[in-house]
Design a protein that fits this description.
The chain is an alpha+beta fold and about 90 residues long. The chain is built from 1 helix and 6 strands; from the N terminus they run ββαββββ. A hairpin with a 5-residue loop joins strand 5 and strand 6. The protein starts with 9 loop residues before the first strand and ends with a strand.
């Protein structure tokens, strides 16, 4: 079995699961998440999307995320007037 290692930015998602092969629209507002998107756009346009176990947490740690996540391709990034980002 071949192992491929990626060093990709990660965005914790609140109350949503993104599945592979599905086009989804996300609105991102946390500064750390916006920075992760910007890093992804500067690289391969790939990002890890992991759902939080508790959506009420504003600054989740790694243990606050489900261990199964999705590697997503960013198709489009739009910066909105209120400072949030639509991807």
């Amino acid at each position: 079995m071949t192992t491929i290692k990626y060093d990709l930015p990660l965005i914790p998602l609140r109350d949503v699961v993104v599945f592979p092969g599905v086009v989804s629209t996300l609105f991102v507002g946390r500064n750390k998440s916006i920075n992760a998107l910007n890093a992804a756009m500067a690289g391969e346009k790939k990002i890890i999307l992991a759902t939080q176990k508790d959506g009420a947490l504003d600054a989740p740690l790694f243990d606050d995320l489900f261990k199964v996540a999705t590697i997503a391709n960013i198709l489009q990034l739009i910066k909105l007037p209120d400072g949030t980002v639509k991807v």
